[in-house]
Amino acid sequence: MGPLEPTATAPTLPDAGAGFFGLAMTSDDLDATxxxxxxxxxxxxxxxxxxxxxxxxxxxxxxxxxxxxxMSPHARDLERG
Length: 81
Hints:
Elements: E1 22-26, H1 30-37, E2 45-46, E3 53-57, E4 67-71, H2 75-80
Parallel strand pairs: 1-4
Antiparallel strand pairs: 2-3, 3-4
C-alpha cells in the first residue's frame, strides 16, 4: 500500500483528477498462463522490477479496452511460499 499523504518524492499532477491506466494481474506460472491463453497473451519478457516477467494481454482482440498485463510474482512472494 502506498503513502496516505503525498511525500516530497511522490509525483503530483496539479488539477488532475483520479484516473485508471490499466490492470496488472499476477500468475504463479506465467509460462503456463501464456500457453493456456495462446495468442491472446503476448510473449513473457523481463519486467522493470528485477526478477519479474511480464506479458501483455491483447485485450482488444477479446473485445476489451483496458490495458492489461500478467506478471510473475515478486521474488519476496516466492520466498514466503
